[in-house]
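Section 4.2 – Deliverable D4.2 (structural model, holo form)

The reporting period included a commitment to supply a predicted holo structure for the target in complex with iron/sulfur cluster. Inputs used:
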Amino acid sequence: MNHLLLQSSDLADLHDKVRAGERLSEDDALRLFRSRDLNTLGSLADIVRQRKVGNRASYILNRYINYSNYCILSCQFCAFSRKKRDQDGFELNVEQIVQKAREALSIGITELHIVGGLHPSLPFSYYLDMLRSLKALDARLQLKCFTAIEILHLAWQAKKTLRGTLQELKAAGLDSLTGGGAEIFRPSVRSAIAKGKESAEEYLEVHRVWHQLGGRSTCTMLYGHVESIEDRIDHLRQLRALQDETGGFTGFIPLAYQPDNNLIEVKTAPSGFDSLRTLAISRLYLDNFDHITAYWVGLGMRLAQVALSYGADDIHGTILEEHIFHMAGSKTPQLQTETDMIQAIREAGREPVQRDTFYQVIRSHGNPKSAAS
Ligand code: SF4
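Output (structure tokens):
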């Protein structure tokens, strides 16, 4: 870090703390959020990123599948869910899902990311059948499926315990839970944007039990709507505490709010400044997380690429068919090619690596000779 810049920064005293690997407090996080010194913030986050992963930055070859957008809830921020009476509602049968997987396998994907709404009537056997059929298609395919609220919904519908539900899904082939649905944990914000959804305690309990069963998962935070900076810090604090307890989170994925087609009055997405500082502070505060993902679907690939210098070490994946963010107004493409992701990482001066669901390296493309080449 440039010491002249550092000496004139209002964050100078945090430099020693970060260099020493000391844990940041909530007050430290608040100071970081209040600072306008984005470059110093990025430099601090880069110290931690470098310590965790060296010069690597990762991507994954994956495919999204939404099995249905029917949902019994009506979260205010959600542009994805539909009721049975809606003409653009859909649900896929297992063979249709397998067909989508078969097509994606032919281009080399290693992961399916499968989520849906809280379907009013699909039986538990549908989800088991889906997992078993996909594993039968290719046992190496990693199945990252279901948000915490979906898991609770399946358990409630099937009248099973949470632990029993997760055990059956795991036995059928579930490899990882997704991190979706965390939104913002604080109850006042949660009821303003996702009334009726599971509480923070329930979200965390689903992941806790999954981790106790030997499973891994990611976690998220939806930022840039009605929440305060203090709400974000409270959210990060609760994730860090569960990670201290279980160590089961593989990575953290901040999600930039998308403002279209919903009931929330905020009509702009978070700025580039806000997204970069949120990623950087996440990297600094979540000292027990190995990976921070810059989710290009919400940020755009250009900002995701810049985020690699602000604490992020992963830009997510090819995705192929994204609906949830795009129905909420995201203007990004619905897919990325592997070539473009490698190029974006390499241009940022990092060594591009293809990873699997658990952030394990599948293939390295080598260190870039020159950031500008
Ligand atoms: S966010 Fe999820 S639970 Fe809420 S309405 Fe949308 S699909 Fe349903």
